[in-house]
Amino acid sequence: MKNIAVLGSTGSIGTQCLDIAESDKNINITALSANSNVKLLEEQIRKFNPPIACIVSEEKYKALKDATFDLSTKIVCGKEGLLEVASNKNTDTVLNSIVGMAGLVPTICAIKNKKRILLANKETLVCAGDLINKLLKENNVDIIPVDSEHSAIFQCINGEKKEKLKRIILTASGGPFFGKKKEDLQNITKYDALKHPNWDMGAKITIDSATLMNKGLEIIEAKHLFDVDVDKITPVVHRQSIIHSMVEFCDNSVIAQLGSADMRLPISYAINYPERSECISKPLDIFNMPDLTFAKPDYETFECLSLAIDAIKKGGLYPAVLNGANEAAVDLFLNDKIKFLDIAYLVKEALSSFKNNGEITEKSVLEADSFAREVVYEKGSKIKIC
Q1: Residue 62: which residues within 8 A CB-CB, separation 6 or more?
Q2: CA pair distance 243, 258, nearest whole angstrom
Q3: Contact criterion met (CB below 8 Å) for 234 and 167
Q4: How confident is the model at residue 197 (pLDDT cuts 50, 70, 90)?
Q5: What pLDDT score does 40 carry?
């Protein structure tokens, strides 16, 4: 029996994890958390009857408490409640699918409480990869990637010797604006940017896919997950999202992982690793799939990808600044405060303003994140949208 706490249970990854749990009697849901979706969280609590559930928004606590008054589930709220969910004694595995920097502290808490980590929150490793790897080693805890690309890499290198790995080929869909130049992107709207060609995801990650920042964050994540130099990670635009990533070895053999664009496959693999289990993901129809194409990314038009690579090469706290600045800039864009191309501009401004590149600790990472957001919100407030 796998006793799993799902952080971010009402989001895309969380709901698909619960789809899997509903069809697999060997999965026991021991805890749930959501940011503010009371209605869906209540439905999930009633279906899975976990010992504890958290609504992070303290304003929504009473509504959830009242909605579940007839159930035995303990209802908690806020950041402290989230940590209680991440560390609860009934759990042996924590799936972290929280969006953004908010997922860092719960991951650290779960690791310190010896929980196996299924990671769909890339910001944890982007912002504090060295710290996380240190804690994993100290607490003898495993971390299994859930992102489709990192799951693919994980599967491709399984059983191989690390020293034989030549490079990681990280695939990207290219987002909705593949092939366009900066002049084409001057006046696009958030509605244009939210039209991802292949995946149905949350708003923030969909915008990151449109700017290619998502791929930059995944490069940083891959560096920490697989302990490889950033120069050995090659991003490639693969529009069909059928090959989820590839690995090239010293003999020039390339191993790829293929599958339909269905996140339930990597989620199931992470839950059941090192075994495989029958999964409700869509099978890949090889006789009817489109031709597979590959292209180099346009680093000039999609500047966020270059900024991410520069940040990890600088190291230290720069990736935390990059991530915090990007989260704030995407927030401004989604709220119609800035234009699409201003996202990269504001991230660059935050990175160039940052000087205190010290030791990576939980405190310093949070301070770097806060600094970046302050820069972006201050400079973003001065941008005029015609």
Answers
A1: none
A2: 4
A3: yes
A4: confident
A5: 98
What does the alpha-carbon distance between residue 233 and residue 262 come to, in Å, rounded to a whole number? 24
Answer whether 283's CB lies under 8 Å from 262's CB: no
Query: Which H or E element spans position 275?
Result: none
Is residue 8 within 8 Å of residue 258, measured between CB atoms?
no
- Region of 179 please: left (phi>0), alpha (psi -120 to 50) or beta: left
pLDDT at residue 386 in the model:
65
**The pLDDT of residue 384:** 84
Q: Which residues, listed in sequence order, are joined to residue 5 by a DSSP beta bridge?
A: 31, 94
Q: Strand, helix or coil at 144?
A: strand
Each residue of 226-251: pLDDT tens digit?
999 999 999 999 999 999 999 999 99
Residues whose CB is less than 8 angstroms from the CB of residue 210 and which lie 6 or more positions away in sequence, other chains included: 175, 176, 177, 193, 194, 196, 340
User: Does residue 314 contact residue 358 with C-beta atoms inside 8 Å?
Assistant: no
Map tokens 């980590």 to a residue: 117
